[in-house]
Amino acid sequence: MTDPAKVRRHAERVRELVASVVRSQIKDPRLGMITITDARITADLRDATVFYTVLGDAAEQAGTAAALESAKGMLRSTVGKALGLRHSPTLTFVLDNVQDHVKHIDDLLAQARSADAEVQRIAARAEYAGEAQPYRLDEDEDDDTEADDESDDVASAAQERR
């Protein structure tokens, strides 16, 4: 069984190697503005998946995918020699849709901000349903005490009459 730390190290090394080879050695005109974002390798170190992003439209993404597929053999041999493994890992290139996720999250955040602004605007115009101060204050209690005193006086006067 392979150590997970070793697998992570090899995956990072695959990412670095593919990025440097794509940047310096592949001269294919179909290759667009590419960024190697991540690489993952299986525990048996035989299959590696390389994630990449391309700046541009769908045509540039398709051209870059074709360029990577045509350079796959050269990239695999370079990675195999650099890693020093018994078997060179097979490379699979996957277009990373992280930019789409970022755009989606930005749209969701913009919706949340506009909803918050709407709530604040409504709250600024809000009025109390009843009185502004629904609770009794100490002054009100003094008035109630005076009323209680008056009722006590009336009750005691009624008892005296009997």
From TrEMBL:
It is found in: Cytoplasm. Its main location: cytoplasm. The keyword Transmembrane helix does not apply. It comes from the Bacteria. GO terms for molecular function: ribosomal small subunit binding. Pfam families: RBFA. Keywords: Cytoplasm, Ribosome biogenesis. SUPFAM superfamilies: Ribosome-binding factor A, RbfA. This is Ribosome-binding factor A. It comes from Micromonospora inyonensis.
